[in-house]
Design brief:
By secondary structure, the protein is mainly alpha-helical. It has 38 helices and eight strands. About 5% of the residues have low confidence.
């Protein structure tokens, strides 16, 4: 033991180890830099430590062997015998241990060999690491953590070129600030500033200003897809910050951003510049980024508001309206002046809760308050949104104009589709025509999920199951699995599916579909057609089970009318679920009046002739049905009461707030035109057609009201107008009026119109079209009384066409 300690002293092992540990620290720092710069695998660092530990053993052994060699006597002519002072090592053919001569050991463990071995070991390490990177397809430059599927989203913010006193700090400072603001914005991922600066310092000497190709090459070495090249210029107390954004793959510029302000407002300027820079990147939809609609509308100065908006926009595109609403609320909370975020919040809530929601209305009002900050196109589209929200007929012409001004803008076409869907029937737009703007919007932007909702409903109404299911498949591809988008597979299966498919869909409705979605998504969204009757019957039962018996009764009555089972439909007019709503019962009877005959039933006579009129719409319906029944005194009394109601409403709407009540006064003033309609209808039934069309045409200019009750009144008016036009020999405009009867959520208008279309096409000498409509109606009403006025009319029309 004492001999071993003596040998350690002679080897000066402490000084050797101290030197070795210091050298090892330097080597590890070099390894770390090379690993990061060359994007070598993570295992390079731990393997380096293992090599250094092995080296520690070798260095220690070398120090001791060389110390022993220095103390040993120089051998004379007689060679040392085998085993003298030897070190046990394996030798010989059998691998057994023996003793090497001390001189051989000293020649093996030399400082030169130890150092050379260490160098070769590390060179081999780096060679193997480089080969591993190439074999796995990874880059030899750029940080190892940047995977290939992420590289398309990376943004490298490079040091700014600076000019002016005290601006040097912004050269590298902007890298940190912009990278922090941009990270996570709209799917962007900024490259870590430390990685960017490591690449920069490896290529650019202090004080040097590299050219653009060099800067883009540095950005490329980080694994980025986009490069932000900027400058900061100070002129007195003013500072101008600007950026140019480049697509690294093509080397082409994508956009610019620039802000100016005082030196004391630099941080606010950085926020504004971040928004402009993000907008320029997102405007292209390059790489794997989604194409962002109308980036010029991103008028916020808050990166936090922008980030929340873009998060909401991504969810809105996927039809996740609940998540989108929350994100848009955060955006508005950060910046209440952010017009586009307010607009999107309004639309998301509209899809989530239906049109007319109070929070949605307030959000739209905030958007309109800051309309002046929007570019002209976005301001025009926002104006159309307002017209749609207030159900203003002007939305139709304004939306049509927008598609002419911006034919490549999917949102303009979507808004035209919305205008057609909600108001087009009153503008004599057919159901097929209402589909076309949506299809154009889908063609321009097929990944925007909300575009698909109404087209699915429309194609289901047209009984075009192939197209409806294809649209549903596209919606499912681009949307989330839950929320409103997830309901359409159920509603389609209920409307168009086979009996077994429908049964499974009904089971899912009982378990999955909330009440609101059942009302807005199915009852109001899908047309009542012969194909929908089995589903309508099942949904009516489900509504009754959920305590919504009044809506269920309306849906059930619609199904019976669609089948021509009129006695059962009339019983439902007096269903106990509707007994407390005489107005609803009276409005249901409007459809019988449209056919020219009120039901000859004592319950109807009692409903019409006794009691007070149930409000303005109830008085209108009473006057119409009374005219059908020849109850002319009651007809006049109902109109007088109706007039009084309107006068009272106008006084109440006037109030003290003239501006706030102006629209209400206008609407109740317009309502007077319906008195003229009811009076003209009575004249028609008593004396004939003279003067009637004028009153009907005037009423058609009235602004639509978004309720099934007003819709029922409007549908009846268009039927009467079509009948008058046909009687006057104007078959083509009559056909357009008949074909517009698709907007009601209840009743049999969509089926009954087939009779009128058959008559109109027969008058226009289009026998195949006429025959198709007659046959479709008779098939739907195959269980109806064969002597019903409409059945006789369709049958006689077919007979007039002869064999075809």
């Amino acid at each position: 033991m004492s001999d071993f300690i003596e040998r350690l002293k002679h080897a000066r092992i402490v000084r050797v180890l101290a030197f070795y540990l210091g050298a090892s620290w330097v080597i590890l720092q070099v390894v770390d830099v090379l690993r990061e710069s060359l994007a070598l695998p993570e295992w390079v660092a731990p393997v380096s430590i293992i090599l250094l530990l092995i080296g520690l053993v070798i260095i220690s052994a070398t120090a001791m062997v060389q110390a022993d060699a220095a103390r040993a006597p120089v051998p004379g002519p007689a060679a040392a015998s085998e085993g003298e002072a030897g070190l046990p090592v394996p030798h010989g053919g059998d691998g057994s241990f023996g003793e090497l001569p001390a001189s051989d050991v000293a020649r093996l463990f030399t400082w030169k060999r130890a150092v050379a071995g260490g160098v070769l070991a590390f060179l081999g390490l780096f060679a193997v690491a480089a080969i591993a990177v190439m074999l796995t397809g990874g880059p030899l430059i750029g940080p190892e953590e940047i995977a290939a599927d992420e590289a398309g989203l990376g943004v490298a913010v490079l040091p700014f070129a600076v000019t002016g006193p005290d601006m040097d700090v912004w050269a590298e400072g902007m890298v940190d600030l912009l990278a922090d603001n941009l990270d996570g914005t709209g799917g962007l991922r900024t490259i870590d500033p430390r990685t960017v600066m490591a690449r920069w310092r490896g290529r650019v000497d202090p004080g040097e200003s590299p050219d653009l190709p060099t800067m883009l090459d540095i950005a490329r070495s980080t694994g980025a897809r986009y490069a932000v090249v900027g400058s900061a210029v100070a002129l007195g107390d003013e500072v101008r910050l600007s950026t140019d954004i480049y697509d690294i793959l093509s080397g082409e510029p994508m956009g610019t951003g620039a802000v100016e302000g005082s030196t004391g407002d630099v941080m606010s300027m950085v926020d504004r510049l971040s928004v402009e820079t993000a907008s320029a990147v997102l405007a292209t939809g390059g790489g794997e980024l989604p194409a962002l609609r109308h980036t010029t509308s991103l008028t916020t100065r808050s990166p936090e508001a922008l980030r929340a908006y873009l998060e909401g926009e991504a969810m809105y595109r996927r039809a996740d309206f609940a998540g989108a609403s929350d994100a848009f609320r955060r955006a508005v909370a950060d910046d209440s002046t952010f017009a586009l975020a307010n607009l999107r919040l309004s639309r998301a809530l509209g899809w989530l809760r239906n049109i007319g929601d109070d929070e949605a209305r307030l959000a739209l009002e905030r958007a309109l308050a800051f309309e002046g900050r929007l570019p002209p196109r976005e301001a025009e589209l926002l104006g159309i949104e307002q017209l749609l929200e207030t159900q203003d007929f002007e939305a139709l012409s304004q939306a049509a104009s927008a598609t002419q001004n911006y034919p490549d803008d999917p949102e303009a076409w979507e808004l035209l589709g919305e205008a057609y869907y909600h108001q087009g029937d009153q503008a004599l737009v057919s159901l097929e025509e209402s589909l076309q703007p949506f299809l154009k919007a889908i063609e321009l932007d097929p990944t925007f999920s909300p575009i698909y909702f109404h087209p699915i409903e429309i194609t289901a109404g047209l009984a075009d199951s192939a197209r409806a299911y294809a649209l549903r498949a596209d919606l499912q591809e681009h949307s989330t699995d839950d929320g409103r988008a997830g309901r359409y597979d159920v509603f389609l299966d209920v409307t168009l599916g086979s009996p077994s498919t429908r049964e499974a869909a009904i089971a899912r409705i009982r378990e999955e579909i909330p009440d609101r979605e059942l009302f807005t998504g199915y009852f109001y969204g899908f047309r009542r057609t012969p194909a929908s009757v089995p589903g309508d019957l099942a949904i009516a039962q489900e509504l009754d089970r959920r305590g919504a018996a009044n809506v269920g009764a309306q849906l059930l009555q619609s199904a019976r009318l669609t089948e021509g089972r009129l006695d059962e439909a009339l019983d439902l007019v007096f269903d106990p679920a509707l007994s407390d709503e005489p107005r609803s019962s009276l409005l249901m009877l409007l459809q019988w009046s449209a056919w020219g005959e009120a039901p000859d039933d004592p319950r109807v006579r009692s409903l019409v002739t006794t009691g007070d009129c149930p409000g303005p719409l109830g008085c209108y319906a009473t006057a119409i049905v009374a005219a059908d029944m020849g109850e002319w005194q009651r007809h006049g009394e109902a109109l007088d009461t109706y007039e009084s109601f309107i006068a009272d409403r106008i006084v109440e709407a006037g109030g003290d707030d003239a501006e706030g009540s102006q629209r209400a006064v206008e609407r109740w003033t317009e309502e007077r035109l319906w008195i003229d309609v009811a009076r003209a209808y009575g004249q028609w039934r008593q004396d004939g057609l003279e003067g009637v069309p004028n009153a009907f045409n005037a009423a058609r200019t009235i602004q639509p009201w978004a309720s099934w009750a007003h819709n029922s009144r409007n549908q009846a008016l268009r039927w009467w107008t079509a009948e008058l036009l046909l009687a006057q020999g104007q078959a083509e405009p009559a056909a357009r009026h008949y074909d517009s009867l698709w907007g009601a959520p209840q009743g049999a208008w969509f089926t009954v119109r087939l009779v009128g279309l058959g008559d109109a096409h027969r008058a226009m000498e289009q026998p195949s079209e006429a025959r198709r409509h007659y046959q479709a109606f008779l098939e739907a009403w195959r269980e109806a009384d064969p002597e019903h006025v409409l059945v006789r009319r369709a049958r006689e029309g077919l007979e007039a066409l002869g064999d075809g």
